[in-house]
Structure formats: structure tokens, C-alpha cells
């Protein structure tokens, strides 16, 4: 179980470190190529959710994030012995905390990864952890249904 908490902490730490580096080195609303034609590093403020939905609803996102963390903590306590669920929930908790810290501290979330080969919303480390966590949990659920 300590390994899962270490993963949660590592996600939050990496997310916040990358955001600090981006803010310090990339001017706001600009991007620089990282892997030409594939990925750029940007400095964007996201006042909403994915695709900038619900812009300006800071308190809504704060409340939803806290409620989600309570539910995920309960599920983690219940399922920590089932490694796919524990891994997925660890990623979800770390990602949620990473973005929640931005919302509390700044009032917005800093995003930085821009895909150059497809029109996709700019995202961050926390968003990546959230997406991977959801995929792992969905795979675990599908595998259980197949049995």
C-alpha cells in the first residue's frame, strides 16, 4: 500500500514541478516545439475543465474535486488489495490533487502539452494521470465482466 501513496505523491510532485518550469520558461499563451510535428510545450491558463468547458466555475470545480477525492479515497480503502483498481485510483487521486492545488492556489489550471498532429485540448501531467487511471479501471472492470 505505501507504493500507491508514493505514486500519488510522485504524480502531484511531477505535475507541480512541470507547471513551475513552464511558467518560468514559456511566456503565457505561447508554445515551443518539443518533438517537432508531434508535441509542443505551451503555457496556457485553463479556467474551465477539458476543452475549456464551464469557464469561470472555480467553486464548482473545487467542490466537485473534493467530493471526488472523498469517493476515490473510500474506493481506494475498499479496493487497495486489488492492484489494477488501486493503481487506477492512485493515478486518479494524484491527478485530481495536482489540478486541485492549481485551482486553490491560482484560480485556474496550468496546461502545457499540445499535440501538433491532431486538434486536441492542451493538457498537463495531472490530466494524463487522470486519463490513464480511468483506462486502467475500465480495463479492470471489463476483465471482471469477461470472467
Summed up, what is this model?
The protein is built from four helices and three strands; from the N terminus they run αββααβα.
Account of the protein in words:
This protein is of the alpha+beta class and 147 residues long. It has one domain. Helices cover 62% and strands 14% of the residues. Strands 1-2-3 form a three-stranded antiparallel β-sheet. α2 (58-79) runs antiparallel to α3. The longest helix has 24 residues, at 2-25. It is globular.
Distance, first to last CA: 26 Å
Coarse structural class: alpha+beta
Count of runs of 4 or more consecutive helical residues: 4
Total tally of structural domains: 1
Report the β-strand fraction as a percent range: 5-15%
Coarse morphology: globular
Q: Taking all residues together, what is the mean pLDDT?
A: 93
Largest sheet: 3 strands, antiparallel
Please report the total strand number as a whole number: 3
| Rg computed from alpha carbons, rounded to a whole number of angstroms | 16 Å
- Give the neighbour order of strands across the main sheet: 1-2-3
Order of helices and strands: HEEHHEH
Low-confidence stretches: none
Helicity range of the residues?
Answer: 55-70%
Amino acid at each position: 500500500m505505501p507504493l500507491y501513496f508514493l505514486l500519488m505523491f510522485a504524480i502531484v510532485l511531477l505535475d507541480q514541478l512541470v507547471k513551475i518550469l513552464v511558467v518560468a520558461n514559456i511566456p503565457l499563451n505561447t508554445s515551443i516545439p518539443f518533438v517537432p510535428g508531434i508535441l509542443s510545450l505551451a503555457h496556457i491558463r485553463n479556467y474551465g475543465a477539458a476543452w475549456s468547458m464551464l469557464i469561470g466555475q472555480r467553486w464548482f470545480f473545487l467542490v466537485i474535486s473534493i467530493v471526488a477525492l472523498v469517493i476515490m479515497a473510500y474506493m481506494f480503502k475498499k479496493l487497495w488489495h486489488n492492484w489494477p483498481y488501486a493503481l487506477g485510483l492512485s493515478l486518479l487521486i494524484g491527478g485530481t490533487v495536482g489540478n486541485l492545488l492549481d485551482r486553490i492556489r491560482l484560480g485556474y489550471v496550468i496546461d502545457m502539452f499540445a499535440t501538433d498532429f491532431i486538434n486536441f485540448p492542451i493538457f498537463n501531467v495531472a490530466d494524463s494521470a487522470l486519463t490513464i487511471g480511468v483506462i486502467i479501471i475500465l480495463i479492470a472492470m471489463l476483465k471482471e465482466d469477461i470472467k
